[in-house]
């Protein structure tokens, strides 16, 4: 089954699904890029581990204990057992766990020089703390001081966006491209909920031409191969932040038309 939406599916942003989406999309995109590269380039997947805070819903069986009086014939007294009150609520707990992610690096075969770094942002990259967005920004600045190009694919609505000198327009998702020879200028693709993800250029070393990455095709291929419709409850609301009223109404209409809500 294909995703019921034309572009990014916000239900894929769920904390229990996104790490799998991330790794599959990185792998599929790396293969698609590698197929277009000349022999002097290689596209490699570089894994890393980050700490993610996720909600874990406990699994438990609820039962009502019997309440009774125990009579001891050997004694003259009787002991009354005390009824234990069942919990009125069962809530998920927040746990910090190590989570595997990856980036794509295009390198020269001869000297292993980094040509282009492609980041598919994770929740940790966008978390508002020193180990999250601040640490990611420090890595960005190192690339900005190098001769490597940087592509940032941000298809998570929550958290802090990659920092620019001017505010980004209002949009659900973004792709940013920083070509080494055009800094400090950055090319920006704002993407709405109703939009297909763009076909983006992947720059190489001068004077070689860009290659292309069809993000929408990659995402829908991953969705189909992973059978995410079996894991998603489209009857529930998508993960936060909430959409504007018009987008929420459009999303509801699309899901009903696809027969998943």
Q: What is the topology?
A:
Blueprint: H1 18-34, E1 41-56, E2 69-71, E3 78-80, E4 93-108, E5 114-120, H2 133-144, E6 149-154, E7 173-178, E8 187-191, E9 199-202, E10 211-214, H3 215-226, H4 245-257
Parallel strand pairs: 5-6
Antiparallel strand pairs: 1-4, 2-3, 4-5, 6-7, 7-8, 9-10
Helix pairs in contact: 1-3
Structural domains: how many: 1
- Cα gyration radius (Å): 25 Å
Share of helix, binned: 10-25%
Residue runs with pLDDT of under 50 for 5 or more positions: 58-72, 74-78
Beta-strand level of the residues, as a percent range? 25-35%
Q: Mean pLDDT, as a whole number? A: 90
Strand segment count: 10
Structural class: alpha+beta
Q: How does the overall form come out from the CA principal axes?
A: globular
SSE pattern, N- to C-terminal: HEEEEEHEEEEEHH
Distance between the termini: 15 Å
Can you describe what's shown?
The chain is 21% helix and 27% strand. It has a 6-stranded mixed β-sheet, with helices on both faces. A two-stranded antiparallel sheet has the order 2-3. It has a two-stranded antiparallel ribbon with strand order 9-10. It has one domain (10-57, 102-257). The chain has 261 residues and is α+β, with helices and mostly antiparallel strands.
Give a quick set of tags describing it:
261 residues, alpha+beta, six-stranded mixed beta sheet, two-stranded antiparallel ribbon, 4 helices, 10 strands, globular
Task: Describe the structure concisely.
The protein is α+β, with helices and mostly antiparallel strands.
């Amino acid at each position: 089954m294909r995703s019921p939406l034309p572009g990014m599916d916000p239900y894929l942003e769920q904390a229990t699904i996104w790490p799998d989406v991330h790794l599959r999309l990185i792998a599929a995109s790396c293969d698609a890029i590698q197929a277009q590269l000349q022999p002097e380039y290689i596209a490699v997947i570089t894994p890393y581990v980050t700490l993610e805070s996720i909600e874990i819903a406990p699994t438990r069986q609820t039962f009502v204990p019997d309440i009774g009086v125990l009579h001891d014939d050997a004694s003259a007294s009787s002991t009354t057992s005390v009824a234990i009150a069942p919990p009125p609520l069962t809530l998920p707990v927040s746990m910090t766990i190590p989570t595997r992610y990856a980036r794509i690096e295009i390198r020269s075969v001869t000297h292993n020089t980094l040509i282009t770094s492609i980041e598919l942002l994770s929740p940790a990259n966008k978390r508002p703390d020193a180990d999250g967005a601040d640490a990611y920004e420090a890595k960005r600045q190192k690339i900005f001081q190098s001769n490597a190009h940087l592509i940032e694919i941000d298809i998570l609505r929550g958290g802090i966006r990659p920092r620019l000198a001017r505010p980004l327009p209002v949009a659900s998702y973004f792709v940013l491209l920083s070509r080494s020879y055009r800094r400090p200028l950055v090319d920006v693709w704002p993407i709405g909920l109703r939009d297909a993800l763009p076909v983006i250029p992947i720059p190489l070393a001068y004077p070689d031409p860009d290659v292309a990455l069809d993000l929408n095709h990659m995402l829908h291929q991953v969705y189909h191969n992973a059978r995410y419709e079996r894991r998603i409850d489209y009857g529930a609301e998508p993960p936060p932040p909430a959409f504007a009223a018009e987008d929420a109404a459009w999303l509801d209409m699309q899901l009903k038309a696809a027969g998943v809500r």
